[in-house]
């Protein structure tokens, strides 16, 4: 029954998800908890990837039900690119030292961007400030432009591996016009292993 | 898997339910931490991954069975045994009194704070979490008003972290006591070291601020410099009647040595704290399993970056370890994640360097993994639990939870969970 309902309402579900995508991080997080509490909804969402192959734009609430095997590549194709002149550039330095530049939408968090573009940044608690797996190191010039981290973010940063003066949690940095050109480095906790094995 | 896309991964679990510590070790009022379960869903949906639950390694399945069908094994069974204090009456059967007003927790880690917070928390709030109904029922009938959390060393040696401390300080209607003299003294004498250690500095700031929370009908306190010496039961000459705890006798300590290696030295003085309810929360240790080397002192499997070493420090081909079994029972999700990455990278680099695995023919496709093991298990009369089976159990838990306005109502016993699969 659910699957028939879904087939008929695919469009409205997708437009709903796009609507959330454009909302700020906190609203997405709020929806996230709302869905969790309202388990009736959860069943519906849960069934989507199984019953039909809809490719979703990556929003936090739906993202968690992606299939491991098909997730990131599809999302990469599906993401709505920013309109001419409206995007903001963000540079990632991966643990391997590779530089990736992405034209992102204002209002997206670093967590959204990495998940949408298949950049390896674990976000285990999905932006709910319960872990430090999305730890990134921000270019000092841009670090000062960011809003001060909250106590809750700092609590988690205290537990991050290799904390620096300009460390932040990726899920808490939301792209703005004045952050255009920001560079963030994804630290590697295991780089030492690699170097050792190579030598 | 990125490097070797044809790799198959099978995960054996003793319980019929995956998630381990995230399900059983994360406090019920921290649902956001449990979000990591959703990431597991992604892994489980990969066709190269198989979950095989309800299989006890060492009983149902031996190392020999596994060696014949796999190239490498990663052990990651955590730390399930509690550490012991080694004190008088610790193993005597003395009952706790749940109606007790004062509650003593021995140990100052995050688990100690989690337990204390659950006890002092508003019961209505608590009933909206996934806390099990039988635990909730006990707590409903016996509200505890005072919690005393005792540690053998000083405020700079606590092992709890900022989030948990902040939650304790912010508990409504709950005041906080601590030895403010000792705290101020420790802070001022070690100010240089503290200012360089960001997590410690922030933790101490929260503690200092907390001292001004002096109103409320409930209370909690941090007591320092106390080592438990003896559990004391109520006088009772009748051996047929259960003994109930009356107090804990503590040895009073002083601190010695440099800050990075502070030790608690007994002063010889004793102190009794009256209580009807005592909880030990001084950490865990892993247990040795069949066929694995084991370090009894550290309670872990000896390893170098995840590769298992025998007692003479020789690498054991094809045997790896991850998680608490690898580095001991501490650390948060990020710590565990990093060490799992480390183990995975060591496995990949071992394959690249053609190091021997469980057998010499790593790239020979004759090994079938769970395809061959599951029939053996069935022959032995074991009802293995697949990921689809777990989803059925989960659905039942969610249903039961919905009726009570909770995220889920967890099965408390393995038999109950297994019964879902029989119907």
From TrEMBL, chain A:
Q: Would I find ATP-binding among this entry's keywords? A: no
GO molecular function list: 2 iron, 2 sulfur cluster binding; electron transfer activity; metal ion binding
Coiled-coil intervals, chain numbering? none
- A Pfam family per the record: Fer2
- Cellular component terms (Gene Ontology): mitochondrion
InterPro entries noted in UniProt: 2Fe-2S_ferredoxin-like_sf, 2Fe-2S_ferredoxin-type, Adrenodoxin-like, Adrenodoxin_Fe-S_BS, Beta-grasp_dom_sf
Q: Any signal peptide, and if so, which residues?
A: none
Indicate whether Nucleus appears among the record's keywords.
no
Instruction: Cite a single GO BP annotation.
Output: P450-containing electron transport chain
Q: Describe the family membership recorded for this protein in Swiss-Prot or TrEMBL.
A: Belongs to the adrenodoxin/putidaredoxin family.
Name of the featured protein: Mitochondrial matrix iron-sulfur protein
Source organism (scientific name):
Rhizophagus clarus
Q: What is the lineage of its organism?
A: Eukaryota, Fungi, Fungi incertae sedis, Mucoromycota, Glomeromycotina
Automatic annotation (TrEMBL), chain B:
Q: Name one GO molecular function term.
A: oxidoreductase activity
Tell me which GO cellular component terms the UniProt record holds. mitochondrion
Q: Which residues bind FAD per the record?
A: 13, 21, 324, 331-333
Q: Where is this region: Disordered?
A: 397-423
Quote the EC number: 1.18.1.6
- Compartments, as annotated in UniProt: Mitochondrion
Q: Which InterPro entries match?
A: Ferredox_Rdtase (IPR055275), Ferredox_Rdtase_adrenod (IPR021163)
Protein name, UniProt field: NADPH:adrenodoxin oxidoreductase, mitochondrial
Q: Which lineage do the record's taxonomy fields give for this organism? A: Eukaryota, Fungi, Fungi incertae sedis, Mucoromycota, Glomeromycotina
